[in-house]
């Protein structure tokens, strides 16, 4: 097996299992541990995985989130349910902001069901899906493109958002600890905050597995959101904290 084929096979394994063991990989591909080390080093350098003791993972860490291409392949059923729940908050004629992320990309593409609608987004996947959609006014935010997040960020993005206004902002996050949402990228945090500031209402989208985790940068308190949508009930202690705070939590079901 050629090197690139082996590395693609490693990523395929990670998409399904989320973590791989170095010794298992060496046995599977009949190569040395050092060869696997080099593979994992190069894949980590490309931002596709995070090396851990004895192997690698695509699970988020305080400073790591897997590449958009990887996240787009994960949890498709959960994302679809969350998108349907979020779509119920949208009415024809609204102006809606959609941030970066694979979950938000699925939601953004579904907004055609609510046309006529105006969509403001820095999400390249949403821009691609809606650029020719009938009865959708698309405002694509410029900025510096990030392949990792498949979106646009930076001063240009934030300045554009400061001049716009929306009815709803859909904000996704990879980590919630206690009553606060976190993100590992400061540019993404600034863009998300700018969307929240420019919208009458903000809705948080978060996979239930991301509760009980933190990341490098604090994004916002959960009390800053008018609603929180997740795909399944979070751990009892996390659910209890949300209930005590009187926050609106929607669990998206079939």
Structural write-up:
By secondary structure, the chain is α/β, with parallel strands linked by helices. The chain folds into 2 domains: 57 residues, Orthogonal Bundle (Arc Repressor Mutant, subunit A), CATH 1.10.10.10; 181 residues, Rossmann fold, CATH 3.40.50.1360. It has 10 helices and 15 strands. The strands form 4 sheets. The chain has a 7-stranded parallel β-sheet, sandwiched between helices. It has a 3-stranded antiparallel β-sheet with strand order 1-3-2. It has a 3-stranded antiparallel β-sheet with strand order 10-11-13, with helices on one face. Strand 10 and strand 11 form a beta hairpin. Helix 2 packs across helix 3, helix 6 packs parallel to helix 7 and helix 8 runs parallel beside helix 9. The longest helix has 15 residues. The radius of gyration is 19 Å and the shape is globular.
Using only C-alpha atoms, the radius of gyration works out to 19 Å
Terminal-residue CA separation: 42 Å
Please indicate the percent range of residues in DSSP E strands (runs of 2 or more): 15-25%
What sequence of helices (H) and strands (E) makes up the elements?
HEHHEEHHEHEHEEEHEEEHEEEHE
How many beta-strand elements?
Answer: 15
Secondary structure class reads: alpha/beta
Largest sheet: 7 strands, parallel
Shape, principal axes of CA atoms: globular
CATH class of the largest domain: Alpha Beta
Task: List the domain count as a whole number.
Answer: 2
GO molecular function, one term: DNA-binding transcription factor activity
Protein name: DeoR family transcriptional regulator
Keywords: DNA-binding, Transcription, Transcription regulation
InterPro entries: Carb_Metab_HTH_regulators, DeoR-like_C, DeoR_HTH, NagB/RpiA_transferase-like, Tscrpt_reg_HTH_DeoR_CS, WH-like_DNA-bd_sf, WH_DNA-bd_sf
């Amino acid at each position: 097996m050629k090197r690139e084929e082996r590395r693609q096979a490693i990523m395929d394994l990670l998409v399904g299992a989320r973590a791989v063991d170095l010794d298992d990989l060496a046995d599977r591909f009949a190569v040395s541990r050092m060869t696997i080390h080099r593979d994992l080093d190069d894949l980590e350098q490309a931002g596709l995985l995070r090396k851990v003791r004895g192997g690698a993972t695509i699970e988020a860490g305080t400073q790591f989130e897997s590449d958009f291409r990887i996240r787009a392949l994960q949890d498709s059923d959960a994302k679809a349910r969350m998108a349907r729940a979020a779509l119920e908050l949208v009415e024809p004629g609204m102006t809606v902001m959609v941030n970066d992320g694979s979950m938000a990309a699925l939601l953004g593409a579904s907004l055609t069901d609510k046309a006529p609608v105006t969509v403001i987004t820095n999400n390249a996947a949403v821009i691609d899906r809606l650029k020719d959609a009938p009865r959708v006014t698309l405002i694509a935010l410029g900025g510096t493109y990030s392949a990792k997040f498949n979106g646009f960020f930076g001063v240009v993005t934030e300045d554009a958002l400061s001049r716009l206004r929306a009815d709803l902002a859909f904000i996704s996050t990879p980590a919630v600890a206690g009553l606060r949402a976190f993100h590992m990228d400061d540019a993404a945090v600034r863009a998300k905050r700018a969307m929240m500031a420019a919208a009458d209402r903000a809705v948080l989208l978060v996979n239930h597995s991301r509760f009980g985790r933190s990341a490098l940068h604090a994004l916002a308190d959960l009390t800053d959101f008018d609603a929180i949508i997740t795909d399944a009930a979070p751990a009892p202690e996390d659910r209890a904290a949300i209930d005590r705070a009187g926050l609106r939590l929607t669990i998206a079901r079939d």
